[in-house]
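Priority: medium. Attachment 1 of 2:
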């Protein structure tokens, strides 16, 4: 048999892995990651947000970070991009509606259209707290749960609701905004309201409550350090925050029968100060249903929003 008569076996070409990108756009930093289709993070990048340069610049910065991650991870096929953004957004149209003063030219910007034009793949947009909850339900502390209250404790208090396996944002996009429910004292909230949960449990609220009782203004992490060192006022501030969170959780359980809660955000670095008071508040007035409250601290850390955004576009692709 000649060499030309030797049978040859044609091997199928190796399949290029399909990946998702997740973007978390905050007022200071933009966190970007690339994940597999089963939401395993392959690589991540953190870049500064050009928050005062307008929507086009903000998206361009995120797009450049995604391209860098694809270069580092490749060869891969990008099949979708999910974006989580601070502020009020319209996930149906992919537009940012309302933002904080930390942004310029961001409100009204069409995020998904801009991202889709860059990559030629589907894109989605979520509020950052909704994306946080999606992340924790998809691959975090409450994975697989169908009814969850998600809360983030940062500069403010954010909230999101998962009901029957779907994010519920209400007819005007404000469902789950537990941070701005009144009835938590008489302090003025950053939104202009009075006695909102945010005045107790947000970083700014913790700073303000400590300052009004001592005359000393410190960062929230410094108040936490003072509490850990035995400062009675600081301990009391964190106890009030924890009891406020417990009351908000019980209100949700009473109205919606949602008894699974996941809490994340920077203030949860002081979980050892918050958790005992939250649990004490929950035990003092258990839900009328008799169900026990499942309370979880978020697991995904700084990946939560971007990974949750990626899970949203994955759901879109799966139909």
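Attachment 2 of 2:
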């Amino acid at each position: 048999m000649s060499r030309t008569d030797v049978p040859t076996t044609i091997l199928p070409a190796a399949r290029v892995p399909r990946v998702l990108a997740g973007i978390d756009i905050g007022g200071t930093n933009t966190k970007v990651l690339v994940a597999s289709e089963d939401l395993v993070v392959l690589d991540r990048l953190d870049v500064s947000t050009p928050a005062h340069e307008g929507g086009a610049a903000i998206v361009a910065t995120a797009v450049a970070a995604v391209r860098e991650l694809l270069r580092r991870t490749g060869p891969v096929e990008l099949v979708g991009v999910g974006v989580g953004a601070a502020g009020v957004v319209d996930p149906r149209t992919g537009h940012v509606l309302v933002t904080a003063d930390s942004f310029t030219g961001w409100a009204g910007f069409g995020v998904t259209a801009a991202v889709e034009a860059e990559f030629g793949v589907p894109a989605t947009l979520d509020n950052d707290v909704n994306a946080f909850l999606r992340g924790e339900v998809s691959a975090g502390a409450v994975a697989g749960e169908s009814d969850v209250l998600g809360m983030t404790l940062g500069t403010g208090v954010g909230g999101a609701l998962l009901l029957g396996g779907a994010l519920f944002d209400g007819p005007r996009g404000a469902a789950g905004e537990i941070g701005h429910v009144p009835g938590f004292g008489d302090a003025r909230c950053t939104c202009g309201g009075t006695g909102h949960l945010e005045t107790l449990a947000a970083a700014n609220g913790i700073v303000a409550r400590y300052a009004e009782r001592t005359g000393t203004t410190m960062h929230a992490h410094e108040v936490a350090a003072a509490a850990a060192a035995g400062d009675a006022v600081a301990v009391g501030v964190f106890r009030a925050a924890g009891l406020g969170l417990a009351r908000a959780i019980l209100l949700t359980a009473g109205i919606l029968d949602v008894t699974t809660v996941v809490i994340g955000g920077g203030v949860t670095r002081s979980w050892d100060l918050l958790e005992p008071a939250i649990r004490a508040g929950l035990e003092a007035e258990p839900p009328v249903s008799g169900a026990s409250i499942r309370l979880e601290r978020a697991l995904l850390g700084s990946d939560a929003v971007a990974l949750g955004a990626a899970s949203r576009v994955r759901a879109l692709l799966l139909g």
